[in-house]
Design a protein that fits this description.
The chain has 652 residues and is an alpha+beta fold. It has 2 domains: 57-217 and 514-652, no CATH class; 220-471, no CATH class. The protein is built from 13 helices and 31 strands. The strands form 6 sheets. Strands 14-15-17-18-19-24-23-22-21 form a 9-stranded antiparallel sheet, with no helix packed on it. It has a 6-stranded mixed sheet with strand order 9-8-13-12-11-10, with no helix packed on it. A hairpin with a 5-residue loop joins strand 29 (592-598) and strand 30. The structure holds MU-OXO-diiron (FEO) and calcium ion (CA) (2 copies). One calcium ion binds next to loops.
Length: 652
């Protein structure tokens, strides 16, 4: 995490413009109510209650008053691991962690073996890419032992990938060592992969001669669909139609739809554009709001489309949710503009009780927003092909959290409220291209970096990971973002009105404020059952297993920040144990924990170790760890792992 350890590429991207990216004067709730207690504390008006709920959680409190209500889910019975930081990964006793896919692993029968001293873009495009964040598993024939793994390749660390390069940035070295070959390898290492995998005699393996295997890169031909497709602001000299774009970039988390497509989300796309817009260019305000103009990569040095002076509209073609059919390796990925343009963390969805599909979307920036998209049509279970246009028509909403524990989804629809020509929105395309500015104008609640959001189909409750925001001041504290200088983040639980995810009304509460509960000043609210190893900071990705239980992966823990590496924790959401967290897995030094993804039978869990060894002064030659190969001639390699229980059975 940037504030704590000066991470290199990740911090550069995450900091690449978020000072004042949200310039609006939307009232934070702290300006309405000066309070640091959560909703239920306020309703009950009692400090004693506040003290109790701070330790046991408000749902447990409600349940203790209503003993007839049975907890919905079981608790976790694995033996917790010890929190800490070292050069390798650790999983709970009785479980195996198998390295399934490493950066550079060949994905096709004719793909070259990985040779870090002689890498090329052509080789990289046939091998597994770098820094996987999202992982999805799409079963083949309903199997939990055979399916398609879909994985995003979010970004690249040149200092760890390439010999003799070191950190390349604009500030200190002006990208002086970035050759065209290195840039093209980076472009080929971004994007994503579809990989057929199969479990044989308990061990997972890659099916290299699969007809499904595919690499998607930051150069793959894609189509732009939905209301912004074909708009003037989407046209470039290479694409006068405004409907074709090459590549997806910085794909963070995502989702899998009920019709078996993969949603891959462009997050910090801003860092890939170089140069300056022409003076007084029409996109100046738009690009400032997204932090565009401070390059973290040198792609614009060799490719005009990443140079703002040469292709001023190109950034409008990034920042979208991309839908990909993993069953068709020739499928042209679709950027679904109806879901808005933000720094999309993820796009996990749920089939609503009326058959419509609802996608929850976090915009990962300090003081940015939580969104959802509700399709106009219904999921068609009889005819898969009929679902491929579903994400082109529907309504995008942004969340407003009120201090009384209620909230509203505000539609971002052209012509409604302030989203009119007077404010520069001539059509829905303008609303979507400038989603953030539209959300500013309707008065959405500024959040502490919304990351992954997952709905629990068993309860219809929705979990929002808010990773941290150390720039929130005391004056900006509100009920949904209850801590100033929020270094460790928190999780908000949302309850859609009547269990209807299409409803514009919801209630909400803070599930847990993260950080070390033994330090009073931190104000963490894990239950008192949580051990010294069990708490975490900086929630990021999450997953709900088939038993309806919540698992959380983190980004930003370190020896300095929290005395622990990032990892995976299991968090109780129901019953008396609500707010109890247990430590299941941890990553090697410098890494971030991503995935997580369970097979439908909960017997295999896919995890991604992103940017291992990403530490100050860590390089290709001298990395903080050589995980996972630990060979002197191999650099560290971001990898996907699969966790299984020794002797078989569910991960419990
Ligand atoms: Fe790519 Fe918000 O993490
Ligand atoms: Ca994430
Ligand atoms: Ca992250």
């Amino acid at each position: 995490m940037d504030e704590h350890k000066g991470r290199l590429r990740a911090s550069e991207l995450e900091d690449s413009g978020d000072v004042g990216n949200n310039p609006t004067q939307n009232l934070t709730m702290g300006e309405i109510i000066a309070t640091r207690f959560n909703r239920r504390d306020l309703l009950r008006g009692s400090l004693a209650v506040a003290a109790i709920s701070a330790t046991v959680g408000s749902r447990a409190l409600a349940q203790s008053e209503n003993p007839a209500k049975k907890p919905l889910a079981t608790s976790f019975d694995f033996k917790e691991i010890e929190a800490g930081v070292d050069g390798t990964h650790h999983v709970a006793e009785g479980y195996d962690a198998q390295v399934l896919l490493r950066w550079g692993d060949p994905l096709f029968p004719d793909a070259p073996e990985f040779d870090p001293m002689n890498q090329t873009a052509e080789k990289q495009a046939r091998q597994f890419g770098y820094n996987t964040d999202y992982i999805g598993f799409i079963p083949l024939d309903g199997s939990s032992d055979h399916g398609l793994l879909v994985a995003n390749h979010e970004y690249t660390n040149e200092e760890l990938m390439f010999p003799g390069v070191g950190v390349q940035n604009s500030k200190d070295v002006n990208f002086s060592k970035m050759t065209k070959n290195l840039v093209d390898i980076e472009i080929a290492a971004h994007g994503g992969a579809v990989v057929e995998i199969r479990r044989v005699n308990g061990k997972w393996q890659v099916v290299k001669d699969s007809k499904y295997n595919r690499r998607i890169t930051a150069d793959t031909q894609m189509e732009i669909t939905g209301p912004a497709a074909g708009h003037e602001r989407m046209k470039t000299s290479a694409d006068t139609s405004g409907q074709k774009v090459r590549g997806m970039i910085n794909n963070c988390a995502g989702g899998v739809t009920p019709w078996g497509t993969w949603l891959s989300c462009e997050e910090n796309f801003n860092g890939y554009f170089w140069g300056k817009l022409p003076e007084n260019h029409a996109e100046t305000v738009n690009y400032k709001r997204y932090g565009i103009g401070k390059p973290a990569y040198a792609w614009g040095k060799y490719h005009d489309r990443f140079d703002l002076a040469k292709e001023p509209n190109e950034p409008n073609r990034f920042g979208w949710v991309v839908e990909i059919d993993p069953f068709d390796p020739n499928f042209v990925p679709k950027k679904r503009t109806a879901l808005g343009r933000t720094k999309h963390e993820g796009a996990a969805g749920i089939e609503n009780k009326d058959g419509r599909y609802v996608v929850y979307l976090g915009d990962d920036e300090r003081f940015d927003y939580v969104y959802k998209f509700v399709t106009a049509g219904k999921v068609d279970k009889q005819n898969r092909a009929a679902n491929f246009g579903l994400l082109d028509e529907g309504t995008l909403y942004v969340a407003k959290y009120n201090a009384d524990g209620k909230g509203t989804w505000i539609p971002l629809v052209h012509g409604q409220g302030p989203l009119t020509e007077a404010n520069g929105f001539k059509s829905q395309a303008d609303v979507l291209i400038e989603t953030r500015r539209a959300a500013d104008l309707v008065g959405a609640t500024k959040m502490d970096r919304p990351e992954d959001i997952e709905a629990n189909p068993a309860t219809n409750r929705v979990y929002v990971m808010l990773t941290n925001n150390t720039r929130r001041t005391e004056e900006q504290v509100d009920a949904a973002n209850p801590r100033a200088k929020n270094a460790f983040g928190h999780i908000v639980e949302m309850m859609p009105e009547g269990g209807d995810h299409a409803s514009t009304d919801f209630t909400w509460e803070v599930l847990v404020k993260c950080g070390d509960p033994s330090v009073a000043a931190v104000g963490a609210t894990f239950s008192s059952e949580t051990t010294k190893d069990g708490w975490f900071g900086m929630p990021d990705n999450c997953a709900i297993d088939s038993q309806g239980r919540l698992w959380i992966s983190t980004d930003g823990n370190s020896a300095e920040a929290t005395g622990r590496a990032d990892g995976l924790w299991a968090l109780e959401t129901e019953g008396e144990l609500r707010g109890t967290s247990k430590h299941f897995f941890r990553v090697p030094v410098g890494g971030e924990m991503c995935g997580p993804c369970f097979t439908p039978n909960d017997e295999s869990l896919f995890l991604a170790v992103q940017h291992p060894a990403e530490e100050d002064n860590s390089t290709f030659e001298n990395p903080a760890t050589r995980w996972p190969d630990f060979k002197d001639d191999m650099p560290t390699r971001p990898s996907v792992l699969v966790i299984t229980k020794q002797g078989g059975g569910k991960i419990a």
